[in-house]
Amino acid sequence: MFIHVVAFRWNESISPEKIPDITKTLIALSQHVTEVKKYRCGPDAGVSAPTNFDYVVVAEFDSEDDWRIYDTHPEHNRVRKEVLGPFIAERVAVQFTA
Predict the structure, then answer these.
(1) How do residues 13-34 score in pLDDT, each as one tens digit?
(2) pTM of the model
(3) Nearest to 86 by CA among 25, 1, 3
(4) Nearest-angstrom CA–CA distance, 74 and 11
(5) Residue 74 near residue 1, CB atoms below 8 Å
(6) Is 65 a residue whose pLDDT tops 90?
(7) Domain limits, the chain
(8) Domain 2-97, what fold?
(9) Environment class of residue 21 by beta-carbon count within 10 Å: exposed (0-12), middle (13-18) or buried (19+)?
(10) Which terminal residue of the chain, N or C, has fewer Cβ atoms less than 10 Å from its own Cβ?
């Protein structure tokens, strides 16, 4: 299993009302790319350090090659640019094999 984890820290222009729309869009993206085996995303629960990132995506794939298909998929690129891009202050990501 190849796991992709990405976390975002939002900039000041995002409103709390926008988060559910982002989640819906990301879930739809995961259903659009057949290589995605499992996909979870959501805002930080706010139960830990205030330095936590604001939002996370955890996606699972059968292989690194399948993740690369997702990573370069036109719909993924559109979501990154149009849906997430205007609101991201910081982004971190990790990929690993489990």
Answers:
(1) 999 999 999 999 999 999 999 9
(2) 0.93
(3) 25
(4) 25
(5) no
(6) yes
(7) 2-97
(8) Alpha-Beta Plaits (3.30.70)
(9) exposed
(10) C
